[in-house]
């Protein structure tokens, strides 16, 4: 505390106003001071007689309030620091403290991004990556969804929605990012879980309909489909027949038609899921006053989403009055974790065009691309056909960039993590679909220190590292030295993240600011 207070005094920060802070926020380096006592330039804000900022020491970082005389803050009174004319209050960056931060600086609270054209989900499993995400996103006409986690990820990392939102909010303050950011409760399947996320100010809900779909219907015979359709309520059956049976719908240059058999298949396969989506939408509207972003996820299936099925889903959501922010079909090809697209790019382009046209014709929602990180081969197509009206969802790629930083600067720690991965990936494989082959990975003992970062370019090993994060982050031999390394080397980590997401957003063709 005393070293930071001395820095405040030496730099005469208590004598500056907000307009002066604005002039110095973009100066390099981003931290004013040094490793033992440093203040993030972009976090300098004054309210009344109190200066707020985020500062770091060799051990940690925290929110600080400084003043030249006694003053009260929402976090408590300022206290003596041992430096003449500088009083301070140190604030742990917790879920409790962030609610006071939101009142002082509303730009630090997540908001609905429903009306924004391009949104990028930048999942941060570690709670320390968002500053790097912001540095990339602020260069483009897009909006970052910084807080993005599923219940599975929370379980693996030992965090809560409250932790995820707080970490993102404090990173927003650290970077002085005032343009707005989102928070996504990913893969929600129950209203109970949704309410937990809403209670932590997460305006985006990704509704995973996997458990209310009826995938077995896809394999039913024509006779079974006809019988199942005839068992539906008569009024619903009549409306569906009038609306869809052998009716031509235009979607861009494509004409889409459902014959009676395919109509029956769609009605039975998706009917319960569409009813549940309507129920969730009404619940969100009642809870939030219409300030929410609802994403419909139908990508967790074993087969690609046919355009005719996408049409049925989109139009039925309209009929039910569901306010769709984005919708994630399952696309042709393979969208595996943290590696490039697997499949015929030309065929993907052809089919993706139709999906985009359906989104334009039936709701104007954003097409959402799940498992979207590192799909560099199809980003130009995705950006072009959506015209930038899209949501790209990434997650584990930021964890991999942290491992890249370790490989670059701490070979011994990387080797430990590499060996430990063999312990954890077999269990992780039960929950993730990858086709990586561990036998093709170069033996660790054959790789000299300077070549360790090459493991992050190996598609096979990237996937094993990607899915093993839960075990690794909870391993006592890994966790403390790993997070300590990231604290000591955070600028390297931020630089790697910024470059990595620059590549993502740039290949999508998103306009620069």
Describe this structure in words.
It is a single chain. By secondary structure, the protein is of the alpha/beta class. Among the domains are: 2-92, no CATH class; 397-503, no CATH class. Helices cover 44% and strands 18% of the residues. It has 19 helices and 19 strands. The strands form four sheets. Strands 10-11-12-13-16-17-18-19 form an eight-stranded parallel barrel, surrounded by seven helices. Helix 7 links the parallel strand 12 and strand 13. It starts with a helix and ends in a 6-residue tail after the last helix. The model has no long low-confidence stretch (mean pLDDT 96).
Could you list some keywords that capture this structure?
single chain; 513 residues; alpha/beta; eight-stranded parallel barrel; seven-stranded antiparallel beta sheet; 19 helices; 19 strands; 44% helix; 18% strand
